[in-house]
Amino acid sequence: MPKTKIEFVCQSCGSRPPKWLGKCPECGEFNTLVEEIARPEETARRPVLSEERPIPITEVQPVDRPRIVVGLGEFDRVLGGGLVIGSVALIGGDPGIGKSTLILQVCQRIASLGHPVLYISSEESVIQTKLRAERLGVNSPNLFIVSETNLSVIRKYLEEMKPKFAVVDSIQMIYRPEIPSAPGTVSQVRECASELTFLAKRL
């Protein structure tokens, strides 16, 4: 049985100093180092996304990737004209600023175009999400909601449903069971975001 390896990870910048320190040597933040169990090398491997080989840039043929125009002016503008199929966007901001409200409105717009949409809430129950949706007039039958924090279960929902648009609200509460650290830590957020990005490109 392999020996368990302990490492210290800064929750601010993700650096890994060789021992615990009160101040992170990389970002200078205090009391941000958290003890985590290092993942075995074999569990950290990720499937190869493609078998493409490097080619000269002169041989690359530009292709206009399809976009979904949501219909919310500023939202579409920030994304360069709409959502690109297979892309991932991170919506950030202070608590209570309206991130979930904005995203529910985006879900309604996309669902009203006839596309299946999956809203995964990691912080609220299905009932809480429904009540907030009612206040916003969000009621499309193409919008599906679920409350879940386990990435393995979320992956199953995404692979079975294959929605046109999916939301995880929020990434801070999602955890990957194979990683022995708490949700919201740098390791969990990094791995969960990486896995969701992989799924977005594959599905």
Explain what this protein looks like in three dimensions.
This protein is α/β, with parallel strands linked by helices and 203 residues long. It has 2 domains: 1-41; 67-203, P-loop containing nucleotide triphosphate hydrolases (Rossmann fold). Helices cover 29% and strands 14% of the residues. The protein has 5 helices and 7 strands, in the order E-E-E-H-E-H-E-H-E-H-E-H. The chain has helices at 73-78, 99-112, 126-136, 151-161, 186-202; strands at 6-10, 33-37, 67-68, 83-84, 117-121, 143-147, 165-169. The strands form 3 sheets. The chain has a 3-stranded parallel β-sheet with strand order 6-5-7, sandwiched between helices. A two-stranded antiparallel sheet has the order 1-2. It is globular, with a radius of gyration of 20 Å.
Low-confidence stretches: 41-45
Average pLDDT: 87
Under CATH, the topology of the largest domain can be stated as Rossmann fold
Rounded Rg: 20 Å
Number of strands: 7
Total helix count?
5
CATH architecture of the largest domain: 3-Layer(aba) Sandwich
Indicate the proportion of strand residues: 5-15%
Tell me, briefly, the overall form.
Answer: globular
Number of domains: 2
What order do the SSEs take from the amino end to the carboxyl end, as H and E?
A: EEEHEHEHEHEH
Briefly note the structural class of the backbone.
Answer: alpha/beta
The N- to C-terminal Cα distance equals 36 Å
Strand order of the largest sheet: 6-5-7
- CATH level 1 class label of the largest domain: Alpha Beta
CATH homologous superfamily of the largest domain? Answer: P-loop containing nucleotide triphosphate hydrolases
Question: How would a textbook summarize the main sheet?
Answer: 3 strands, parallel
Helical fraction equals 25-40%
